[in-house]
Amino acid sequence: MPDVPGASGAEGAGERGEVAALSHGWGRALVFVYGLFAVAATGRSAVQLGLEPGKAPLAYSLSLVAAVLYLVATTCLLLGGRTGWRIAGIAVTIELLGVLSVGTLSYLATDLFPDKTVWSHFGQGYGFLPLVLPVAGLVWLRHTSPTAT
Amino acid sequence: MALCFAAAARPTLAAVTSWLYGAALVVAGLAAVLLVVDLIRDRAAQDSHYIALAVVELLMLVQLVVGVVALSRTSRDIEGAVFVSYLVTNAIIPVVAAFFSLAERSRVGTTILLLAVVTVAGLELRLWDVWGGPHA
To answer: Where are its TM segments located (chain A) (predicted)?
Structure first.
């Protein structure tokens, strides 16, 4: 994946200390993908909860959690600022823990997940991007850390 | 008369949806190759990319119209909400990606366009699943 902000020195948009630069440079690509996932996860949970909410309550609530996290991360990346940076960090960290635990559980305890979530099998249905995304997000947040100056 | 028309239009429409699906995959694939090549050459998003993206967008708009008409005519059990939301999303993605990449005149912009065409191709595959193959 090309979302390695460290390799983007020439773009210069993500210089340290510039918290407003969260959505510039590679951050803009990140916002784009996070936005896509916010839409995808929201749509998925809306369909799942709207059509048959009783079928797989755990999987569907996790879809909803994922949707909220993607929305929060997208918004915070766009807003920028110290608070945005901090909340984005929390959201992306929970997202990483979520995709790792749900990914593992979906292999080990298949009966827990009669239907899929965005994070099932480490996001296999989404080209494993749900696994790559939080890592890219954390790398980017580290790169744009307001305290690193 | 109207019934006759509907009966005659059905197989034609099925052919159109298959053809559109194939065309969308081929064009998105070609655009992706072009973008990857220019990404390797460290090029910013440029005219040829936007032309490719415009072709993808045009196909998506046609597909949106044809898809909705085909959905309204089919008697098969298709998840209509999912189907239409995929069609609409695919028509929006190239436009949003174009604006995003215009704001980032570097290889980041090229990367955004690449992510967009790959997403469109991925959603096409999902659309095909939801539609249930070539039969209408």
So the answer is: 29-47, 59-80, 87-109, 121-141
